[in-house]
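User: Some background: our group keeps a shared notebook of sequences we're curious about, and every so often someone picks one and asks for a predicted structure to add to the entry. Today it's my turn. The entry only has the sequence so far, pasted here. Could you supply the structure so I can complete it?
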Amino acid sequence: MADLGVDYDYLYTIKKDLRTVRKEFKGCSGHQDDLRDEYGSPYISGAMEDFTDNWDDHRKEMLDNIEKVGKLVEQSIENFEKLDKELAEANKRKKKK
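Assistant: Of course. Here's the predicted structure to add to the notebook entry:
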């Protein structure tokens, strides 16, 4: 039977990194209105507005996916910690016999 190894530090790092990415995605909003005059051309301004609208739509979808993955990581951590505890208790009972 193969041993299962769980790198908790890595899982907690992933959890933390996903929170950071989620925070950055939530905080990055288009500055289209601020930059409109900087483009100098209505064609460029229109293209950038289309890009920003598209980015906002996809950013929402990506945020949802980041949150889903974050929940899966948290659930994995909880399940592995619970399993570790159960196995440790079972091992202690086995050694007492």
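Suggested note for the entry: The radius of gyration is 23 Å. The mean pLDDT is 85.
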